[in-house]
């Protein structure tokens, strides 16, 4: 009886540890989360062509980063479908 409970607990802990290590996308670091306005103000006043270009470039970079997350999510979904036999 006790050995069955111990084995069940061991199996559950192994399954949970495998799920915990499956995360592919790292959490954003504090250095990556910068203030776009403060950075672009160094290039020019709000409304100037240099400021507008800076904001546009940073927005495009942010969109590209989020599209990479979409690709990662699609790959994860495909892998899950393959593992589950769908």
Regions with little confidence, pLDDT below 50 for 5+ residues: none
Structural class: mainly alpha
Please tally the helical runs, counting DSSP H or I stretches of 4 or more residues. Answer: 3
- Considering DSSP H and I runs of 4 or more, what fraction of the residues is helical? 55-70%
The rounded Rg comes to 23 Å
N-to-C SSE series? HHH
Characterize the biggest β-sheet. Answer: none
Task: Report the average pLDDT across residues.
Answer: 75
Shape, per Cα inertia axes:
elongated
What fraction of residues sit in β-strands? under 5%
State the total count of DSSP E strands.
0
Query: How far is it from the N-terminal to the C-terminal residue, by CA?
Result: 37 Å
What attributes characterize this protein structure?
single chain; 86 residues; mainly alpha; 3 helices
Structure description:
This protein is mostly helical. It is 70% helix and 0% strand. It has 3 helices and no strands. The longest helix is centred in the C-terminal third of the chain and has 35 residues. The model has no long low-confidence stretch (mean pLDDT 75).
Task: Write the SSE topology.
Elements: H1 2-20, H2 36-41, H3 49-83
């Amino acid at each position: 009886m006790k050995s069955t409970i111990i084995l069940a607990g061991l199996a559950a802990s192994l399954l949970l540890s495998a799920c915990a290590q499956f995360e592919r996308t790292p959490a954003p670091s504090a250095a990556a989360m910068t203030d776009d306005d403060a950075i672009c103000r160094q290039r020019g006043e709000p409304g100037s062509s240099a400021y507008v270009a800076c904001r546009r470039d940073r927005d495009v970079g942010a969109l590209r980063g989020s599209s990479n997350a979409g690709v990662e999510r699609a790959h994860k979904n495909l892998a899950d479908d393959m593992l589950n036999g769908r």
